[in-house]
């Protein structure tokens, strides 16, 4: 039997109430940050809805024909809609194909489940087409939509969905779970992952901490005029851009907190505290805020066609100038 994650207990209890009261939503929108297991939770919901002998906990039995088909990823009443390529939109052709499938009755006696992940990748045309599915719901069909940002979804779709928020666990729960996964440096990884346990686990597997340390060393060397910003930008833009932007934002935020003398426990990078304090002591607070604004603007441009290397060059040159009194 599959298990949901410890921090999803309240989500599962709510879903189980839907089942017990026979009030399963026709459209359920699951929202939450990256790394909280939204897809895993939605998959368990789907498995339960399709199961013909679900347990008293609401979970799928794992043994019936539906559960076996689900495990083999061949269940005819489980439909997934995703972008053809990561980062791309969900086009209207995918929704047209879905509408054709929904015109037929479910093949089994339980529910039919449609999982759309991520729902915010629906473009205008596909969102409008999908809206018809929500306005004219089909027999025994539950739509499950996943998103990290409800703001990216049209209000017309939001208004027709039951909402479920997956929240981050407290630090103790998250660290305890990471310990069961034999993850070291759990606290630092969780800080980098903004409290998302699965993202912290991914960071551990990807060797993120050594990569972050190397980037931090480069950043320090630029501040001390020991490295060329343009050369470092050329190296960085080939790596995990969103991660590096976040690291820089976190370093600057911690420097600002150092200036305001906040407790170390409230910082993103407690392991880098000494170096960040030394940098903060030499910089003007207004300059730090100016650099922070530039980082936030650059973060918003990551999903655009902007020249990423040039963007990093501008950021690192600005960082160098701030440290040289520019």
Walk me through the structure.
There is one protein chain. This protein is α/β, with parallel strands linked by helices and 326 residues long. The chain folds into 2 domains: 6-167, P-loop containing nucleotide triphosphate hydrolases (Rossmann fold); 207-323, Zinc Finger, Delta Prime, domain 3, CATH 1.20.272. The chain contains 15 helices and 5 strands. It has helices at 9-20, 38-50, 65-71, 92-102, 124-135, 155-158, 171-180, 186-192, 197-205, 208-223, 229-236, 241-259, 273-282, 285-300, 308-323, and strands spanning 27-31, 78-81, 112-116, 141-147, 162-165. A 5-stranded parallel β-sheet has the order 2-3-4-1-5, with helices on both faces. Helix 14 (285-300) packs antiparallel against helix 15 (308-323). The longest helix has 19 residues, at 241-259. It is elongated and about 70 Å long. The mean pLDDT is 92.
Summarize the structure.
The protein has helices at 9-20, 38-50, 65-71, 92-102, 124-135, 155-158, 171-180, 186-192, 197-205, 208-223, 229-236, 241-259, 273-282, 285-300, 308-323, and strands spanning 27-31, 78-81, 112-116, 141-147, 162-165. The chain is of the alpha/beta class and 326 residues long. The protein folds into 2 domains: 6-167, Rossmann fold (3-Layer(aba) Sandwich); 207-323, Zinc Finger, Delta Prime, domain 3.
Short key terms for the protein model shown above:
2 domains, Rossmann fold, 52% helix, Zinc Finger, Delta Prime, domain 3, alpha/beta, five-stranded parallel β-sheet, 326 residues
Name given to the CATH architecture of the largest domain: 3-Layer(aba) Sandwich
How many β-strands, per DSSP? Answer: 5
Helix content: 40-55%
* CATH topology tier name of the largest domain: Rossmann fold
Percent in strands:
5-15%
CA-atom Rg in angstroms: 23 Å
Order of helices and strands: HEHHEHEHEHEHHHHHHHHH
Question: Would you identify the regions where 5 or more consecutive residues have pLDDT less than 50?
Answer: none
Structural class of the helix and strand makeup? alpha/beta
How many separate helices? 15
| Average residue pLDDT | 92
Q: What is the overall silhouette?
A: elongated
CATH class call of the largest domain: Alpha Beta
Measure the end-to-end span: 61 Å
Q: What is the total number of structural domains?
A: 2
* Biggest sheet details: 5 strands, parallel
Spell out the CATH superfamily of the largest domain.
Answer: P-loop containing nucleotide triphosphate hydrolases
The spatial strand order of the largest sheet comes to 2-3-4-1-5
């Amino acid at each position: 039997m599959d298990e949901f994650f410890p921090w999803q207990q309240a989500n599962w209890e709510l879903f189980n109430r839907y089942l017990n009261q026979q009030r399963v939503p026709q459209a359920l929108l699951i929202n939450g940050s990256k790394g909280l297991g939204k897809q895993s939770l939605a998959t368990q919901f789907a498995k339960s809805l399709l199961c013909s002998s679900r347990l008293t906990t609401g979970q799928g039995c794992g043994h019936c024909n539906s559960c076996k088909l689900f495990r083999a990823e061949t269940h005819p009443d489980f439909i997934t809609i995703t972008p053809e390529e990561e980062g791309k939109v969900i086009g209207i052709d995918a929704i047209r194909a879905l509408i054709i499938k929904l015109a037929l009755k479910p093949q089994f006696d339980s529910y039919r489940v449609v999982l759309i992940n991520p729902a915010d990748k629906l473009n205008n045309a596909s969102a409008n087409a999908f809206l018809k599915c929500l306005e004219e719901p089909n027999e025994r069909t539950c739509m499950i939509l996943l998103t990290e940002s409800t703001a990216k979804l049209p209000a017309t779709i939001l208004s027709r969905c039951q909402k479920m928020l997956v929240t981050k666990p407290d630090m103790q729960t998250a660290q305890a779970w990471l310990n069961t996964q034999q993850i070291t440096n759990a606290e630092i990884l969780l800080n980098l992952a903004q409290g998302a346990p699965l993202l912290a686990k991914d960071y551990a597997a990807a060797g993120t901490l050594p990569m972050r340390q190397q980037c931090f060393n480069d950043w320090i060397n630029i501040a001390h005029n020991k490295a060329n910003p343009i050369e470092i930008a050329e190296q960085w833009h080939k790596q995990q851009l969103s991660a590096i932007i976040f690291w820089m934002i976190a370093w600057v935020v911690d420097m600002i907190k150092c200036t305001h003398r906040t407790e170390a426990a409230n910082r993103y990078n407690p392991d880098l505290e000494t170096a960040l304090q030394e940098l903060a002591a030499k910089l003007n607070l207004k300059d730090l805020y100016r650099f922070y604004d530039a980082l936030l603007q650059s973060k918003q441009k990551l999903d655009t066609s902007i020249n990423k290397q040039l963007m990093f060059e501008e950021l690192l040159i600005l960082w160098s100038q701030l440290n040289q009194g520019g």
